[in-house]
Design goal:
Distance between the termini: 114 Å
Region (Disordered): 33-77
Order of helices and strands: HHHEEHHHHEEEHEEHEEEEH
Radius of gyration: 57 Å
Structural class: alpha+beta
Low-confidence stretches: 22-41, 51-66, 183-192
CATH architecture of the domain at 222-417: 2-Layer Sandwich
Mean pLDDT: 76
CATH topology of the domain at 222-417: Alpha-D-Glucose-1,6-Bisphosphate, Chain A, domain 4
Strand content: 15-25%
Largest sheet: 9 strands, mixed
Helix content: 40-55%
Shape: rod-shaped
CATH superfamily of the domain at 222-417: START domain
Length: 418
């Protein structure tokens, strides 16, 4: 039932009740002050006078109050007075109810409009909040996806560069082998100038991408720290994928950064046993190319001979110096057709251990990929013999470099003390 229907039903019930109401009283005196308001007394007196006229008498100069007629106190006259008063009350009540009804309807309309505005405002606020939340989440997701995409693209470019360099290296090695077969007058330890240039150019192009990977490589390696300063050893072991042999070693250098950097540069960028190659070398002050031969025939047999092509570059940074090297080792004689592809990082930095003071740490990490033989196979005797020669060559290189390094550090220290 609606509001209007409820109000109509209430008014009808009230009207019926007032018509049926007949107050029962035998009191003759009617107290007008209890029944009427001051504003309606005159109307009531007029109505009573009309219905029950009162005679007034004049006696000389004085007048006496009018006396009601003898029939005024009759029951019929009293009923008429009560009926008139009830009609007045009913009229006033109906008027009041109608006015309240009108005001309630007006208030309902106004409150409905206010409620509608509030609901619309709340809906807009909720929509705006949801939009802001969705936009924020979308922006965060977009930023993360962009960062991942940029990282993937950078890795893809590095991998493409490495693949391209490896392809050029394989191509240059193929050309070298073909030139050796065609030129019988050239010994097995010599390369044609064109083949040498292509090989060193290919190795040199790989150095910058490898330097960019220094932090990534160092972060994923657990270096074995030597127990005493200035001790270095190379122990190669397979990585978890069994794709290459790796070695990770670190040693403490108890000297200053400048003299250590100078001594290490001389040890890695110069070597009395190595023939320098300068044709086409970019940044020769920090880059060196070497081609040399090692022979362990007396120690390991007649075929223990290796040809080594080495490229080294120095990168000076704010708080460290990094050396990156690429080496291609070729077996001779009995080991002809066996190769190794080696990459090495040398990082000289300040020690992060406060107890070591201003000491330096030299970290060395190498990767060696066998080519033409399978070290995981127990039946490949030629490959294992070739590895013995490599280990001998590595030990000799390490001893020579560390000896030069120590001697240069001593010379630097003595020169500073003078």
């Amino acid at each position: 039932m609606s509001f209007d229907q409820q109000m109509d039903a209430s008014l009808a019930a009230l009207t019926q009740f007032l018509h049926e109401f007949k107050p029962v009283t035998d009191s003759v005196e009617v107290h007008e002050s209890d029944l009427l308001s001051t504003s309606n007394k005159d109307q009531l007196s007029h109505e009573v006078g009309r219905r029950c006229p009162v005679r007034s008498g004049n006696s000389g100069a004085t007048s006496r109050p009018a006396r009601p007629r003898p029939g005024m106190d009759s029951p019929g006259c009293r009923r008429e007075i009560r009926s008139a008063l009830a009609a007045k009350r009913q009229s006033r009540y109906l008027t009041k109810v109608k006015e309240e009804r009108r005001m309630l309807r007006t208030e309902v309309v106004e409150l409905s409009a206010v409620l509608d505005r509030l609901q619309k405002a709340q809906a807009r606020a909720n929509a705006l909040a949801a939009s802001d939340l969705a936009l924020s989440a979308w922006r965060t997701t977009a930023i993360r996806q962009k960062e991942r995409r940029l990282e993937s693209e950078a890795k893809q470019r590095q991998l493409k560069a490495l693949v391209a360099n490896q392809s050029r290296l394989i191509h240059s090695m193929n050309e070298i082998l073909q030139e050796r077969m065609l030129c019988s007058s050239i010994t097995s330890t010599e390369l044609l100038p064109s083949g040498m240039t292509i090989l060193f150019k290919t190795l040199m192009q790989e150095l910058n991408p490898l330097h960019a990977m220094t932090n990534e490589v160092s972060a994923g390696v657990e270096f074995k720290l030597s127990s005493l300063p200035m001790q270095f050893a190379m122990y190669r072991d397979w990585n978890h994928d069994m794709t290459f042999l790796e070695s990770a070693h670190a040693t403490v250098v108890p000297f200053g950064f400048d003299e250590t950097c100078h001594a290490l540069s001389d040890a890695l960028l110069t070597n009395f046993r190595r023939d320098g190659y300068t044709n086409g070398i970019v940044d020769p002050e920090n880059t060196r190319a070497f081609k040399y031969n090692v022979n362990f025939s007396q120690e390991l047999g007649d075929s223990a001979t290796l040809d080594i092509h080495l490229m080294v570059r120095r990168y000076m940074e704010a708080d460290r110096v990094v050396f990156v090297s690429r080496a291609l080792t070729e077996g001779q004689g009995e080991f002809k057709g066996l190769y190794t592809d080696e990459t090495a990082w040398y990082v000289l930095r300040k020690s992060a251990n406060a107890s070591e003071g201003n000491a330096l740490v030299l970290e060395t990490y190498t990767r060696l990929i066998p080519v033409g033989f399978d070290l995981t196979s127990e039946t490949d005797e030629r490959g294992h013999e070739f590895v013995k020669v490599l280990v001998k060559a590595d030990d000799e290189d390490v001893d020579d470099i560390m000896e030069m390094f120590k001697q240069m550090l001593l010379d630097e220290t003595q020169a500073m003390c003078l």
